[in-house]
UniProtKB/TrEMBL annotation:
HAMAP family assigned to the protein according to its UniProt record, in alphabetical order: Transaldolase_3b
Family designation: Belongs to the transaldolase family. Type 3B subfamily.
Protein's name according to its UniProt entry: Probable transaldolase
EC primary class: transferase
């Protein structure tokens, strides 16, 4: 399973990229809004840092296929690595089909059922983004959705759409998604940082330092 970082905060993208663990970035209207910056400027800066897929979403207020297609074409022009993020709706599927036919990569987002993922895949989506954290919030096991989608895609045999596990809240979500068959986990920087930590690692480092100092001094 590969890692994308889920943010529009350039500082966090730089830190994660320096760690050498991410190969892409996902954003959404809420994340862009938090930064209070112009969408195109944020995306251009991200593209200068990470050489991999960058998902940029159509406007949240655009609900018709024609509008999504128009915006998707503009997003795709920003950088060759751009992926157009489209909501899982009937109009979104129409836009996905058209953009895909034009060679534009798409990420169908807000997936909450396996059927939605299958429809998006058949519409030609490059990626589907099931939101496991939001399912967990309503007492539905989100990782089960990841597993169902992975099994359905495997059974079909002719689906190239990749599964991006989204709405990741903690390190165990990452482990569960890797075991369930997700191709990618898109993770906030805070979760990536938590994944590096373990109390026994910290204790081991302290012990090694103490042993070194006992023999060689400071």
């Amino acid at each position: 399973m590969k890692f994308f970082i889920d943010t529009a905060k350039v500082e966090d993208i730089k830190k994660a990229n320096d760690m050498g663990v991410i190969c892409g970035v996902t954003t959404n209207p809420s994340l862009i809004a938090k930064e209070g910056r112009v969408f195109e400027e944020v995306i251009a800066e991200i593209a200068s840092i990470v050489d991999g897929p960058i998902s940029g979403e159509v406007k949240a207020t655009t609900t018709d296929a024609e509008g999504m297609i128009k915006e998707g074409r503009e997003i795709a022009k920003i950088h060759p690595n751009m992926v157009v993020k489209i909501p899982m709706t009937v109009e979104g599927l129409k836009a996905c089909k058209q953009l895909t036919s034009e060679g534009i990569k798409t990420n169908v987002t807000l997936i909450f059922t396996a059927n939605q993922a299958l429809l998006a895949a058949r519409a030609g989506a490059t990626y589907v983004s099931p939101f496991l954290g939001r399912l967990d919030d309503i007492s539905v096991r989100g990782v089960d959705l990841i597993r169902e989608i992975a099994e359905i895609f495997a059974v079909a045999g002719d689906i190239d759409t990749q599964i991006i596990a989204a709405s990741i809240r903690h390190p165990m979500h990452v482990t569960d998604c890797a075991l369930a068959g997700a191709d990618i986990a898109t993770v906030p920087y805070a979760v990536i940082e938590k994944m590096t930590k373990h109390p026994l690692t910290d204790a081991g480092i302290i012990k090694f330092q103490e042993d070194y100092k006992a023999v060689f001094g400071e």
